[in-house]
Write the structure tokens for this entry.
Amino acid sequence: MLVQVALIAIATLLTSVCVAMPSVLSDTGNSFLKGFVNQELLATLGVIVSITLVSAGGVHIELGKLATRLSINLDRERQAVRYSAYLLIGLLICALVLVVLKPVLAVTERQTAFANGSGVFLLVWAIAVLYDLTRAAFSINR
């Protein structure tokens, strides 16, 4: 629940900055984001997604073993792990679309700020999923 609230707060903050002070997130005002929301974002998300998908697979297998050993139903938990894995793949696809369309569609300062803010949000969301699955992996044997 805390992670969801944090994601909503970050999305609200990024949107507010895009509207009120777009120069903070735009390519003209932020050289780091200009150089990061491109193939670098895809590379970073690619590493996060590949690491997390391996972890998700391990958690999914361990939940299956645990359910068999204890004769309990963990289908809901296994579905949540699958959802997280598919969400990461969706985030990577969204980042690919963003990186391809940013140079074409983001012309004004506010548009580049929105594109860069979206890239930051995609990265934060992927890190939140990584955190959630890591926490789940370490709590399986409790």
Summary: The mean pLDDT is 92. Helices lie at 2-20, 31-36, 39-70, 75-105, 109-139.
